[in-house]
Amino acid sequence: MKKLSRKLRNEEDKNLSLPVHDGDSRPLDPQEQEELVRSLERSQAQQSRLWRRVFAALFFCYIVFLMYSIVNQASSPWELRYHAYFMEEIYSWMIISADWVAVLACSFAIIGLLHESMHRRRWIHYSWYTGVILAIFWLYYMLRYSY
Protein backbone atom coordinates (compact mmCIF):
# COMPACT_ATOMS: atom_id res chain seq x y z
CA MET A 1 0.00 0.00 0.00
CA LYS A 2 2.81 2.40 0.87
CA LYS A 3 4.56 1.64 -2.42
CA LEU A 4 1.39 2.43 -4.36
CA SER A 5 0.84 5.73 -2.55
CA ARG A 6 4.47 6.74 -3.11
CA LYS A 7 4.19 5.84 -6.78
CA LEU A 8 0.97 7.89 -7.19
CA ARG A 9 2.46 10.83 -5.33
CA ASN A 10 5.54 10.83 -7.56
CA GLU A 11 3.36 10.78 -10.69
CA GLU A 12 1.30 13.72 -9.36
CA ASP A 13 4.45 15.66 -8.52
CA LYS A 14 5.74 15.20 -12.07
CA ASN A 15 2.52 16.61 -13.52
CA LEU A 16 2.47 19.63 -11.20
CA SER A 17 6.13 20.66 -11.36
CA LEU A 18 7.51 23.18 -13.79
CA PRO A 19 9.86 21.95 -16.49
CA VAL A 20 13.51 22.44 -15.62
CA HIS A 21 14.66 22.78 -19.20
CA ASP A 22 13.12 23.20 -22.60
CA GLY A 23 13.82 21.12 -25.69
CA ASP A 24 17.24 22.51 -26.59
CA SER A 25 18.23 23.49 -23.00
CA ARG A 26 20.73 26.11 -24.08
CA PRO A 27 21.01 29.50 -22.39
CA LEU A 28 19.95 32.63 -24.25
CA ASP A 29 22.70 34.65 -25.87
CA PRO A 30 22.97 38.36 -24.92
CA GLN A 31 21.14 39.58 -28.04
CA GLU A 32 18.18 37.27 -27.36
CA GLN A 33 18.14 38.38 -23.72
CA GLU A 34 18.06 42.05 -24.74
CA GLU A 35 15.26 41.35 -27.22
CA LEU A 36 13.27 39.54 -24.54
CA VAL A 37 13.81 42.41 -22.08
CA ARG A 38 12.73 44.99 -24.69
CA SER A 39 9.57 43.05 -25.48
CA LEU A 40 8.73 42.79 -21.77
CA GLU A 41 9.38 46.53 -21.33
CA ARG A 42 7.08 47.32 -24.28
CA SER A 43 4.39 45.10 -22.82
CA GLN A 44 4.73 46.74 -19.40
CA ALA A 45 4.59 50.25 -20.91
CA GLN A 46 1.47 49.35 -22.89
CA GLN A 47 -0.27 47.94 -19.81
CA SER A 48 0.78 50.98 -17.78
CA ARG A 49 -0.71 53.33 -20.38
CA LEU A 50 -3.93 51.32 -20.41
CA TRP A 51 -4.35 51.42 -16.63
CA ARG A 52 -3.48 55.12 -16.43
CA ARG A 53 -6.22 55.78 -19.00
CA VAL A 54 -8.69 53.66 -17.03
CA PHE A 55 -8.00 55.60 -13.83
CA ALA A 56 -8.15 58.90 -15.70
CA ALA A 57 -11.58 57.88 -17.02
CA LEU A 58 -12.71 57.08 -13.47
CA PHE A 59 -11.50 60.49 -12.30
CA PHE A 60 -13.35 62.09 -15.21
CA CYS A 61 -16.58 60.32 -14.19
CA TYR A 62 -16.09 61.62 -10.65
CA ILE A 63 -15.60 65.15 -12.02
CA VAL A 64 -18.92 64.81 -13.88
CA PHE A 65 -20.56 63.76 -10.61
CA LEU A 66 -19.02 66.73 -8.80
CA MET A 67 -20.24 69.10 -11.51
CA TYR A 68 -23.76 67.67 -11.10
CA SER A 69 -23.41 68.22 -7.36
CA ILE A 70 -22.26 71.82 -7.86
CA VAL A 71 -25.13 72.62 -10.22
CA ASN A 72 -27.69 71.10 -7.83
CA GLN A 73 -26.26 72.90 -4.82
CA ALA A 74 -26.25 76.23 -6.70
CA SER A 75 -29.75 75.87 -8.18
CA SER A 76 -31.56 74.36 -5.20
CA PRO A 77 -29.44 74.35 -2.05
CA TRP A 78 -29.67 71.46 0.39
CA GLU A 79 -31.70 69.22 -1.95
CA LEU A 80 -28.99 66.58 -2.11
CA ARG A 81 -28.96 64.37 0.95
CA TYR A 82 -25.17 64.29 1.32
CA HIS A 83 -25.12 68.11 1.40
CA ALA A 84 -28.22 68.48 3.56
CA TYR A 85 -26.44 66.88 6.52
CA PHE A 86 -24.38 70.07 6.83
CA MET A 87 -27.26 72.54 6.50
CA GLU A 88 -26.85 74.10 9.96
CA GLU A 89 -23.06 73.85 10.02
CA ILE A 90 -21.83 75.36 6.77
CA TYR A 91 -22.86 77.88 4.13
CA SER A 92 -23.91 76.76 0.67
CA TRP A 93 -21.11 78.65 -1.06
CA MET A 94 -18.53 76.77 1.04
CA ILE A 95 -19.85 73.42 -0.19
CA ILE A 96 -19.78 74.65 -3.76
CA SER A 97 -16.21 75.89 -3.26
CA ALA A 98 -15.14 72.57 -1.73
CA ASP A 99 -16.61 70.73 -4.71
CA TRP A 100 -14.68 73.03 -7.08
CA VAL A 101 -11.48 72.26 -5.16
CA ALA A 102 -12.25 68.55 -5.56
CA VAL A 103 -12.70 69.12 -9.32
CA LEU A 104 -9.31 70.85 -9.33
CA ALA A 105 -7.66 67.95 -7.47
CA CYS A 106 -9.15 65.40 -9.88
CA SER A 107 -8.02 67.51 -12.84
CA PHE A 108 -4.47 67.53 -11.46
CA ALA A 109 -4.65 63.74 -11.14
CA ILE A 110 -5.86 63.35 -14.73
CA ILE A 111 -3.06 65.58 -16.01
CA GLY A 112 -0.56 63.55 -13.99
CA LEU A 113 -1.90 60.26 -15.31
CA LEU A 114 -2.06 61.22 -18.97
CA HIS A 115 0.87 63.64 -19.29
CA GLU A 116 3.90 61.94 -20.85
CA SER A 117 6.77 63.88 -19.31
CA MET A 118 9.06 63.88 -16.34
CA HIS A 119 6.68 66.24 -14.48
CA ARG A 120 3.95 63.59 -14.27
CA ARG A 121 4.70 62.81 -10.63
CA ARG A 122 4.61 66.50 -9.75
CA TRP A 123 0.98 66.71 -10.96
CA ILE A 124 0.07 63.63 -8.94
CA HIS A 125 1.64 65.24 -5.86
CA TYR A 126 -0.32 68.47 -6.48
CA SER A 127 -3.47 66.38 -6.64
CA TRP A 128 -2.60 64.56 -3.44
CA TYR A 129 -1.85 67.77 -1.50
CA THR A 130 -5.07 69.38 -2.70
CA GLY A 131 -7.02 66.25 -1.74
CA VAL A 132 -5.47 66.22 1.74
CA ILE A 133 -6.48 69.84 2.32
CA LEU A 134 -10.00 69.02 1.14
CA ALA A 135 -10.14 65.93 3.37
CA ILE A 136 -9.13 68.01 6.39
CA PHE A 137 -11.87 70.52 5.56
CA TRP A 138 -14.58 67.82 5.34
CA LEU A 139 -13.26 65.95 8.36
CA TYR A 140 -13.45 69.11 10.44
CA TYR A 141 -17.10 69.68 9.51
CA MET A 142 -18.06 66.02 9.88
CA LEU A 143 -16.56 65.84 13.35
CA ARG A 144 -18.19 69.13 14.27
CA TYR A 145 -21.54 67.81 13.05
CA SER A 146 -21.27 64.57 15.02
CA TYR A 147 -21.00 66.36 18.41
Give a short summary of the structure.
This protein is mainly α and 147 residues long.
Q: Can you give a write-up of this model?
A:
By secondary structure, this protein is mostly helical. The protein has a domain at about 55-145. The chain is about 80% helix and about 0% strand. It contains five helices and no strands. The protein has helices at about 1-15, 30-75, 80-85, 90-115, 120-145. Helix 2 packs antiparallel against helix 4 (about 90-115) and helix 4 (about 90-115) packs antiparallel against helix 5. The longest helix is centred in the middle third of the chain and has 46 residues, at about 30-75. The model has no long low-confidence stretch (mean pLDDT about 85).
Chart the SSEs and their pairings.
Blueprint: H1 2-16, H2 30-75, H3 81-84, H4 92-114, H5 120-146
Helix pairs in contact: 2-4, 4-5
Question: Could you list some keywords that capture this structure?
Answer:
membrane, transmembrane, mainly alpha, single chain, 147 residues
| Helix/strand order | HHHHH
Fraction of residues in β-strands: under 5%
What low-confidence regions span 5 or more consecutive residues with pLDDT below 50?
Answer: none
- Overall, the morphology is elongated
| Fraction of residues in helix | over 70%
Number of helices: 5
Mean pLDDT: 85
- Determine Rg (CA atoms, Å): 28 Å
Question: N-to-C terminal Cα separation, in Å?
Answer: 72 Å
Major β-sheet profile: none
The total count of strands amounts to 0
Question: What class, by secondary structure content?
Answer: mainly alpha
Transmembrane segments: 50-70, 90-114, 126-143
Keywords: Membrane, Transmembrane, Transmembrane helix
Biased composition (Basic and acidic residues): 8-29
Region (Disordered): 1-29
